[in-house]
Amino acid sequence: MLREKNILLGVTGGIAAYKAAALASKLTQAGANVKVMMTNHAKEFVTPLTFQALTRDRVYDDTFAETEPEKVAHIDIADWADMIVIAPATANMIAKAANGLADDMVSTTILAATCPVYIAPAMNVNMYEHPAVKENMNKLKLRGCHFIEPGAGYLACGWIGKGRLAEPEDITAFLQSEYEQQSAYLGKKILVTAGPTYEYSDPVRVFTNPSTGKMGFAVAAEAALLGAEVTLITGPVQLETPAGVNRIDVTTAEQMYEAVMERFPDVDIVCKAAAVSDYRPVSTAKNKTKKRDGDLSIVMERTKDILAALGEKKDHQLLIGFAAESENVIDYANDKLHRKNLDMVVANNISSNNSGFGTNTNEIILLPKGEEPRSLPLLTKTAAAKELWDSMEFMVKRNDS
């Protein structure tokens, strides 16, 4: 459940800092994207190079050492993080966080954070039991910070008692379980469609479109990471099935219609990212049509409108549609949102550079029902999928209440 999650690990100056290296490794092995920030005192115990090697990323240890003038480091990494983990958290850092002090990279970043903050204390048992420390911890709990209880046993100072940093594998398991509990999508049944469809006029000629299925596969993969039970119905594509996703392959628009409608009553959310053919030949020749002089006319008919059919039949389900447009993007997407009884439309301008069919990036506009459109910058399709599910989370929770 931590795969592709952005975790910012804050390391402070206690002897348990050596365990933070193992924690960074465990989180990375769990599939998380890990960045590390350190206090100057932490660097007395473990070098930044250790964390750089384990995470394959730079270490943030100085609020004044800005390497990218266009970014303010502590703001940028706080915004990047899905969660912040302070391990070990000394009594000093807990006091700073509780009282709003910001005089190093870790304490400054905590103040800038809007994501969940997890604190794993590590200190002498007498310090841990001190009323001032308990008061500071209670302050932070009231503000929504989460504490990972220290263990009891032999401490580095020679005392025996509570105050030993939780083991790295236990912290990792705790974060995994916390994220599962937080996810609005945990256990939700989500149906995603992806790719093109093929409509044959004869055994060798086909009407289709340039869709590669990358966006739909990214949407399915992200939903699975959020704990959903995902079924992916895809047209002909050359992509590997995302982990944890049940894949169903189809070829034609009719096959996709049948596969979607059969499963629709049992799902909670449908995200239709497939580029389904709007028209198909009225008839398919049994044999290859031979080339002759003159023009060839093929009579076409409308395929079934899958989204419109879902919009008519939906009961408790939430529906997400995609709109690939080359002009009047918001107007056409907004019309689709209301005309087909959808809950959100994801629109993209296929005439923009590096956006749309065949690319690894997308520049999308999210149009949730009843809300203002939200334009996103050019993102990878994985990042765009994450934004999609983040935007739907409020609707999912409201639908459950």
From TrEMBL:
Residues 190-401 are annotated as: Phosphopantothenate--cysteine ligase. GO terms for molecular function: FMN binding; metal ion binding; phosphopantothenate--cysteine ligase activity; phosphopantothenoylcysteine decarboxylase activity. Residues 1-189 are annotated as: Phosphopantothenoylcysteine decarboxylase. Its EC number is 4.1.1.36, 6.3.2.5. GO terms for biological process: coenzyme A biosynthetic process; pantothenate catabolic process. One of its GO terms (cellular component) is phosphopantothenoylcysteine decarboxylase complex. SUPFAM superfamilies: CoaB-like, Homo-oligomeric flavin-containing Cys decarboxylases, HFCD. In the C-terminal section; belongs to the PPC synthetase family. This is Coenzyme A biosynthesis bifunctional protein CoaBC. It comes from Salibacterium salarium. The gene is coaBC.
